[in-house]
Amino acid sequence: MVELGWREWVALPTLGIPRLRAKVDTGARTSALHVDAQWRFSEGGAPWVGFRITPARARHEVVDACAPILDEREVVDSGGRRTLRVFLATRLWLAGMERDIEINLADRRSMRFPMLLGRTAIAGAFTVDPARSSLHGKPPRYQPGPPA
């Protein structure tokens, strides 16, 4: 297993997000991605979601992405509030490893990290040392590898 710190840099290549700061949170079951805006549409009769994200704090890079909606579920946030969120499947690139994960789209503008990486995304592949951070640095330019 690969060790992670409490925060790491990740890439979500299938969504066109080359680099994003993520807080690794084993207390959270699911992973959440901050979006500035989201909208729904149909593609081939199936429900899809489009969204806009500003991955960097400098706010000069904006990414528009879309993906099929995997599910909609209620999520209880850290403040105890329940909200219905859109879930999608995507590819995570972290510490030189690729794996398919589920994420939900959320408003995390008041949070320091645009992505929360929950325990289901790291299970079976990573361990976390909460005393360390950014063990793997910023991801280099994405290079597809074999499926995890």
From TrEMBL:
Residues 4-138 form the Retropepsin-like aspartic endopeptidase domain. The keyword Repressor does not apply. SUPFAM superfamilies: Acid proteases. One of its GO terms (biological process) is proteolysis. GO terms for molecular function: peptidase activity. The keyword Protease applies. Keywords: Hydrolase, Protease. Pfam families: Zn_protease. It comes from the Bacteria. This is ATP-dependent zinc protease. It comes from Luteimonas notoginsengisoli.
